Amino acid sequence: MELENQHQPENEEPQEPQSSDESFAEMLEATFDYAPPRRGEIREATIMQIEDNEIIVDMGAKQDGIVTAQDLERLDPEYRNSLHVGQQVPVYVLNPRDSDGQLVVSINMGLQQYDWNKARELVETDEVVEVTVTGHNRGGVLVRWNMLEGFIPSSHMVTVGAGLQGNERRDTLNQLIGQKLHVKVIEVDQDRRRLIFSEREAQREWRAQQKARLLNELREGDVVKGTVTGLRDFGAFVNLGGADGLIHVSELAWHRVDHPRDVLKVGDEIEVYVLSLDLERNRIALSRKRLLPDPWDDALERYHEGMLVEGTVTNVVDFGAFIALDDGLEGLLHLSEMGDGTLKEPYSYVKKGDRLQLRISRLEPEQRRVGFTQRWGIDTSEETEAGAEADEAKAEERPESDEAEGGAPQAALPEDDQPEDTAEATAEAAEEAAEDDETDGR
Q1: What is the mean pLDDT of residues 234-256?
Q2: I need a labelling partner for 248 at 20 to 30 A (CA). Which of 54, 73, 266, 353 fits?
């Protein structure tokens, strides 16, 4: 006994063996914490063994789960071949204890339930996902997303235009089979196995993201290249690489532009000047004329009163016609200066687009005014000249609402639709028009 005590540390007390009562208490507590698998439950499992006709998984239960051959056949071949020992997979409990006492689970239904849960999350997050077209019917397109079958109604399609009918529509839809589309989840009803997607909403989301990216990258005053994607009464939309900016009709050229199609066409590749960026509303205002020479800068060097010139009629009004020279200089040919001066109205004499030869009767670069005449050398009364100046000045007036905040011009709306806040409403209308044009594929 003395020898044994010599090897015992002075301050260390001998350990007592754990009592059977404590061991039993721990085992009992572990038993209460254990929740046996229940039918219909989804659990995470680890693949332990892969056989030709079954897979054995560890679910943290008292017995391993069995994935049957029938369930494996329902899996996508590519996914099935990717399964390996140690991989984590969701499993659905089909039968906690079958006739043979086995715990039967399904990877296929586990994945489906996972996808249903994920789909519900996607409705809230507005995330864009990718689906594969598997077929079509009269109402729209059938698609597959992960383990689930879904549907895109025709009204939510962008790839296939709404105007297609008959054989043309069928052929277009057949060509889509096997292709991938970017969509958003807009409706989930697992009980009815109803999963609805929208390509249109996904495109809107994508455009918003692209525009936000451009707004962060661009700076006011930048010169960038773009493609004309749409022409409206109030301006032209230009794609800058994923998102559109708007050139207001007043920023298309130095001369008066009645409609954007007079100077541009869809598909034109042009350089534009970044006029303003609205980060709050995700809007980009562009200008084309800022990159063109201002014809008024050297007008006195190139023109003089009495000079014979040729121009194009850009607009006809009650008191005359506006004429634009080829370099963009624009002025008024007053009714009293047309023909022999006896015309009562101009519409039967000239029309928009006509090419006329006339002389410069008045040139005032500081006021950005030029007057034209076809009666050079014929005396005209001071009263007639005063009337022409008054009409021209009136025509050149611009309402304050035509200019947006920060100097960015906004589009004019029809008089019947003019709201109190014209600038804001115009921007809203332009944005909606852009979305409509892109959704319809222009």
Answers
A1: 89
A2: 353
Which pTM was predicted? Answer: 0.49
DSSP alpha helices (H): ranges in 177-298? 199-217
pLDDT at 229 over 50: yes
If residue 170 lies in a helix (H) or strand (E), which one and from where to where?
Answer: helix 166-176
At a CB cut-off of 8 Å and minimum separation 6, what does 99 contact?
A: none
> 67 has which bridge partners?
55, 105
126-204 matches 42-112 in CATH topology: yes
CATH superfamily of 42-112: Nucleic acid-binding proteins (2.40.50.140)
Rounded Cα–Cα distance for residues 204 and 119 (Å): 19
Q: Which of 125-134, 137-146, 155-164, 244-253 has the lowest mean pLDDT?
A: 155-164
Instruction: Locate the domains of the chain by residue range.
Output: 42-112, 126-204, 218-292, 299-395
Q: What beta strand segments (E) does 154-304 contain?
A: 180-189, 194-198, 223-232, 235-239, 244-248, 269-278, 283-287
CA pair distance 212, 189, nearest whole angstrom: 32
Tokens standing for residue 299:
């007008």
C-alpha to C-alpha distances, 138 to 121, 187, 198, nearest whole angstrom: 29, 20, 16
Residues paired with 270 in a beta bridge:
226
Please state the CATH superfamily assignment of the domain spanning residues 218-292 in this structure.
Answer: Nucleic acid-binding proteins (2.40.50.140)
In total, the chain counts a number of residues equal to 442
CATH topology of domain 299-395: OB fold (Dihydrolipoamide Acetyltransferase, E2P) (2.40.50)
Q: 412-437: per-residue pLDDT in tens?
A: 333 333 333 434 444 455 555 555 55
Average pLDDT, the chain: 80
> Region 404-419: what's the mean pLDDT?
35
CA-closest candidate to residue 131, choices 157, 161, 164, 167: 157
The H or E element containing residue 430 is helix 422-439
CATH for 126-204?
2.40.50.140
Residue 29: pLDDT over 50: no
Q: Which residues contact 249 (CB under 8 A, 6 or more apart)?
A: 233, 234, 235, 236, 257, 259, 260, 411
User: What are φ and ψ of residue 171, in 5° steps?
Assistant: -65, -40
Residue with tokens 């008054």: 390
Q: In this predicted structure, what is the pLDDT of residue 387?
A: 54
